[in-house]
Amino acid sequence: MADAEPKTNAEDYLRMYRQMVRIRTFEDNANQLYLSAKMPGLTHMYSGEEAIAVGICEALTDEDRITSTHRGHGHCVAKGAEFKEMFCELLGKEEGYCRGKGGSMHIADQSHGNLGANAIVGGSMGIATGSALRAKLQGSDDVTVCFFGDGATAQGLMYEVMNMAALWKLPVIYACENNGYSEYTRTEEIAAGSITARAEAFGIEAHQVDGQDVLAVNALTRRLVERARRGEGPFFMELMTYRYHGHHVGDINREYYRSKDEEKDWKENRDPIIRFRAWLVTEGIASEDEIEAMNAEIVKDAAEAVSYAEAAPYPDASEVDMHVYAD
Amino acid sequence: MREITLSQAVNEAIAEEMRRDPTVFLMGEDVAEAGTPFKVLSGLVEEFGTQRVIDTPISEPGFVGMAVGAAMTGGRPIVDLMFGDFLYLVMDQLCNQAAKQHYMSGGKLTVPMVLRTNLGATRRSAAQHSQSLQALVAHIPGLKVALPSSAYEAKGLMKTAIRDNNPVVIFEDKLMYQDKAPVPEDEYLITFGEAHIKRAGRDITLIATSSMVQVAEKAAAILAGEGIEAEVIDPRTIVPLDEASLLASVRKTSRAIVIDEGHQSYGVTAEIASRLNEKAFYHLDAPVLRMGAMDVPVPFSPALEDLTVPTPERVVEQARKLCAGELIHAA
What we know:
The structure holds 2 protein chains of 2 kinds. Chain A is of the alpha/beta class. Chain A contains 12 helices and 7 strands. In chain A, about 55% of the residues are buried. Chain B is of the alpha/beta class. Chain B has helices at about 5-20, 45-50, 60-70, 90-100, 100-105, 135-140, 150-165, 210-225, 245-255, 270-280, 300-305, 310-325; strands at about 5, 25-30, 55, 75-80, 115-120, 145, 170-175, 180, 195-200, 205-210, 230-235, 235-240, 255-265, 290-295. The interface of A and B includes residues 131, 132 and 325 of A.
């Protein structure tokens, strides 16, 4: 694991591990709900990228904001959301975070500072930067992290808002989750030059980091968050990672754009959970038995939340034209 | 009562609200020292400083998107879109992001922002600086749309827009900035969704928005000379729409022309005419007519441009036919 200074107590490490496993377990259940035709619509799996959401969100407080993406379940869990409300949302139930009106692609949990997933690729970059502008104008020291994928670097909006963030030194951190694929196309086919150099062109300090190493991600983020709070932002991080599933759950036959060997290599040799688990055991922070017990508890929690969500009521028909306008 | 220009009215409304509420701020291209190309915002930066009157780069999607984020997290931004035509540049941020946040979050997130922009042709500015695009945003659930027709409305609607907890798009007629109207010195607000009867009449209803209210009033004056008493109603906001007042007028007069400067097809006039047909059909003595801008890009040549927008003369001509019981079939 990274040699950068990690959080310094076992409780922090175990919480990070636990959050990563919670994300993976959530996604395994969401995928099953799709495959068994119990979930309406489609969803985009975060599996494989857990170290990014957890490494970053563990460096934030509830006052700090994030904007998320269509591949957003990981961000939502990492920022503090509960399984029950999340599964209810995925199934379109009234008790979901958005009363079933948003679904997987719009899940938001503003009680923990999650301003929401966004189904327009790159669509939340203005929102994140505007949140940081508000913090600066109001003299608040919260920081906003804007999650987006490599595909979103092709959107013009990103360059407009990075320009303004740099001009006005806004407390925003752009977190580019580079999983190597822009939907069904290899990133190198859609991105010319270097992604970090694009941020650097605006005078934004940019870092590339191993997105499979939760401690490296966390250490870097903590440093940048602290500096952003002091007015030294914005910052840019390119987090190198991999998505285990296709673009969405229905993207199953994908050998025309990537090989099974490549997937196997990432899953077996670079998995962020396996790596961190091994480190926890080697460092004597947790035993294999303790880890297995934690995993089992999370699996049980998720199963209970799924059952709860399946039995939960749909919103009443009277909700359909509610919340179009705020009072 | 004192008279001030529409431009001064907008400026006063924003200044008063910025004094009242420290979370209100302005951003857009050349809004600070330049006070916008129309000089509507002159003086605000001197009072409120560059922290609250923020000049942005020419990045419409960027700064509108930032306004959405600021509004979602406790700010109350007013974004200035220099020309209504630039709405096309910001459609994702306005229609996919701002308009839908409240609904998509099940009512948890709100976006209290104002997007102020303009409409109106005949300024010889050609196809990309002359459009009246209110129908475009009125089509999107979650957005409110205000169309002030004088300095009085401009001030009262702007103040209401700034206090509203939803994204509001407010269109000013760029040719009316120097037009004066009586505006009270005491504070007032204009409630959204309340139409205003500009002129009472019994023979025909002229429903007109923004720049077209003056056109309708001029037409009504000409018609009065011919013994036709036209009622002129200004909806003031098209979302929400004061359907009840419009229906009450039409039930009284039995005839109506709807006049708006947006393109006629699929436009504001079509929506209002359709509602009148659906809800006042048995009170009508004639088809409800639509008069919008011609369905052509706005031409540059004055000889052509003037043909594209409704004029008092053309309204009078149509009103006469309706009142004479002539069958009218749209070409």
